[in-house]
Design goal:
The structure is a homodimer. Chain A has about 325 residues and is an alpha/beta fold. Among the domains of chain A are: about 50 residues, lambda repressor-like DNA-binding domains (434 Repressor (Amino-terminal Domain)); about 130 residues, Response regulator (Rossmann fold, 3-Layer(aba) Sandwich), CATH 3.40.50. Chain A has twelve helices and twelve strands. The first copy, chain A, has a six-stranded parallel beta sheet, covered by helices on one side. Chain A has a six-stranded mixed beta sheet with strand order 7-6-8-9-10-12, with helices on both faces. In chain A, α1 packs across α2. Chains A and B meet through α4, α5, β2 and α11 of A and α4, α5, β2 and α11 of B. The structure holds a DNA duplex (16 and 16 nucleotides).
Chain lengths: ~325, ~325
DNA sequence: TTGTACGCGTTATCAG
DNA sequence: CTGATAACGCGTACAA
C-alpha cells in the first residue's frame, strides 16, 4: 500500500492532476474545484513527494550545515542559530558534522554535487587550497563562517577575532596584569592560527613583552587537552594572566590551577573565549569573550536564504564584533 | 551550464545510459566498458542526482533525527552518537530539532509523509495520544528513544531511569544522607515524570521518609531555571542531599548553594544526571548518573539501520543501564 | 554483455 | 479555468 500520489488525489476528486498541483501551489482555481481537491487531499492524507518535486523544480528544500565537531559548544550554538532561522522557512537542515580531516571535508564538499541541498553553510576548521577550490566551484549558494580564504568570493560571516583578544588583553592590562599567557588549540586550525596571530599583534600594540614560551598549544580545543597542556606549561609560575582558546579549555585550566592551589584571579587571571553557558557555571565564574556563535549562525542562515532568493547580488561580508563579558575570574 | 547527467556521461563514454548506471551501482560490465565509463565520470565530474535516484528507488538515503532542543547537552551527545553511526553509512542526517510544543511535533511527524527520510529516530519530550498515533501510522522504520508509550510497537532504546535514581539515592544513603530532595524539571515532560516516579518509588524502597515538599520543579531543564527554583525551595535548610534533573540543573544548584555559603558536600550532597562533560568541570566536581546518551544515540541508529535492512523482523527493545559516576559533590 | 524504452511523482506548457 | 502531456534524471525490465 503506497502513499497517495497526485494522480490518486486527482482521481478521487474527479479533476486532473494539473488542478491538484495548482491548488497545492496556490494558483487560481474555481472555488468548486479547489474545495473538491482539498477534500480529496484531506481524505487521502496526501503529501507531495519531495523527491519528485525536487527532481522537477531543481530544489531540494534542504540546507546543509557543515563543521568539524558537534562536541564543541560553540558549534552547537551555531547550529541552534541556523536551526532557528530555517525553522521559520521551508528548508530542512541536514547536518554534516564530524568531518575532522581535510580528506573528509573534501569528500563531503564533492558530494554536494548530488544536489541534495540548495545551499551550504560551512565553517571549515582547516585551510586547504583544495577546499577553497572546491567551494568556489560549487554551483549553489555558500556562506562561509570564519575567515574567508583569499580568492574565495562567497557570502561570509566572520568575527573580528583579533579584537576579541584585544578586549581580553586590554582588560587584563587595566587590571594590572602584565605577563599574559595564551593556552591555545592546534596552530594548524583556523581558529588556532587566528588566536595566535591576534595575540602576538595585540600584545605588541599594548607594549607588553612577549616570548615564544608564553604561548602553548593543546592537541585540540577540549578541556582535557587543555588540562594536559597546561600541566607542562613552563612559565606557569611567571604569568599573572591566561587567555584560553575557548571556555572548555579555560575550564580545564581552572581545574588544573585549582588542584595546584593557585588562586584565580588572585595569582592568575583567566579568560575564556566563546562565552558559553559553561562560563557562568564554573568557579570562579569565567570572564569570557563572547564570539556570538548563535548570532553568527542566524546571520549566516539569513544570508543564505537571501542569496537563494537573489542569486545575482554581490557577495556580502558581515563582520561581527565580539564582546567581553567580565565575571569573577579576572 | 547544468550538472552532468547520466546521459551526458553515456554520450561522452560512447556507451548507453544503462551501462553507466550499471558501473555506478557495481554491476558487471566488460572491463573495457567500465574503464571508459569511469574515465567519462571523472572527466565530467559526474555525481548522480539524489532526487532522481530517490524518486526511482524510493530511498532518500536520509535519516531524520527529531528531539526538542539542541540546547540540552544530552541531546547533543545523542546527536553525536547517531552522527557517528550514520557517518559510516550512506545516510545523511536531517536534524529536526527545536520542536518545543506538541503542535510542532505533530506537524513535523506529518511532514514525514513527504518521503524525505528513510527512517526516523525520535525522542519525544511530551506524551500525547496524537503523537503516539502518528508515529504508529508512519510507514517508515522508527526508533523511539525514551519510554515507549503503551500500544506503540516500534524499535526502542530506553534507559532504566528509575535505576538511575536508585543508584543515586542508595549511594547517598550509604554516605549517611537521609533527607534527600529532588530538583526536577517540569512534570508534564517525559523525563520529568520518569524522574519523579522513580524518586518516589526508590525512596519508599529505601525506607526513607518522603513528603511532597521534598520535590520541586523548575520551569525547564536549564541551569537558570534550576537556580530560580532552588532559591524558593522551602526545605533547603532541612535536606542533606539533592538529586537534580540533569547536570545543568545541578550546576545551577551548585552555584546557588555556593552563593549562600552552604558547603557541598559538607552540608548538602548534590548529584546530577547525564554525566556530561560539565560534571567534571564544576566545583566541586559533580557526582552524576550517566545515562549514556551517546551510546543510546549509537544504539538507536544501529537499530534503525538494521530495521531498514530487515523490515519484517519483530521490534526490539533495548534497555541500557545507567552508571553512577562518583565525584566530589557527594 | 549491452542498449532501448518505460515509469517513478511532480510541475509547467499549451491548447481548449 | 481546466486537462492532457512533456519533461526532470535515474534504474531496470526486456530485447538484442
Amino acid at each position: 500500500m503506497r502513499s497517495p500520489t497526485i494522480s490518486s488525489v486527482a482521481l478521487h476528486a474527479g479533476v486532473s492532476v494539473a488542478s491538484v498541483s495548482r491548488v497545492m501551489n496556490g494558483f487560481a482555481a474555481r472555488p468548486e474545484t479547489e474545495s473538491r481537491v482539498r477534500a480529496a487531499i484531506a481524505d487521502l492524507g496526501y503529501q507531495p513527494n519531495s523527491a519528485a518535486r525536487a527532481l522537477k523544480v531543481r530544489e531540494s528544500d534542504q540546507i546543509c550545515l557543515s563543521f568539524a565537531d558537534i562536541g564543541n559548544p560553540a558549534y552547537v550554538s551555531m547550529t541552534r542559530g541556523v536551526g532557528r532561522v530555517l525553522h521559520e522557512s521551508k528548508y530542512r537542515l541536514v547536518l554534516a558534522s564530524s568531518f575532522s580531516t581535510v580528506g573528509e571535508i573534501i569528500q563531503q564538499l564533492e558530494s554536494m554535487g548530488r544536489g541534495y541541498a540548495d545551499g551550504l553553510i560551512i565553517s571549515p576548521i582547516y585551510s586547504d587550497p583544495k577546499i577553497t577550490e572546491l567551494i568556489s566551484q560549487l554551483k549553489m549558494p555558500v556562506v562561509l563562517i570564519g575567515t574567508l580564504p583569499t580568492g574565495l568570493d562567497v557570502d561570509n560571516v566572520h568575527i573580528d577575532s583579533s579584537l576579541g583578544i584585544k578586549l581580553a588583553a586590554t582588560h587584563l592590562k587595566e587590571r594590572g596584569r602584565s605577563k599574559i599567557g595564551l593556552l591555545n588549540g592546534p596552530l594548524n586550525t583556523n581558529p588556532g592560527r587566528r588566536r595566535s596571530d591576534g595575540f602576538r599583534k595585540v600584545l605588541k600594540n599594548l607594549r607588553l613583552e612577549i616570548v615564544e614560551e608564553q604561548m602553548i598549544q593543546a592537541d585540540d580545543f577540549t578541556s582535557q587537552s587543555a588540562y594536559e597542556a597546561i600541566s607542562r606549561y613552563p612559565l606557569i609560575s611567571e604569568i599573572d594572566a591566561l587567555i584560553c582558546g575557548n571556555d572548555l579549555m579555560a575550564a580545564g585550566a581552572l581545574r588544573f590551577l585549582s588542584e595546584l592551589g593557585i588562586d584565580v584571579p588572585g595569582k592568575i587571571a583567566v579568560v575564556g573565549i566563546d562565552n558559553t553557558e559553561l562560563a557562568s557555571l564554573v568557579k570562579p565564574t569565567l570572564t569570557s569573550v563572547d564570539l556570538l556563535a548563535e548570532s553568527r549562525g542566524e546571520l549566516a542562515a539569513n544570508l543564505l536564504l537571501d542569496r537563494i532568493a537573489n542569486p545575482k547580488r554581490a557577495s556580502k561580508k558581515i563582520v561581527v564584533q565580539p564582546k567581553l563579558i567580565v565575571r569573577s575570574s579576572t
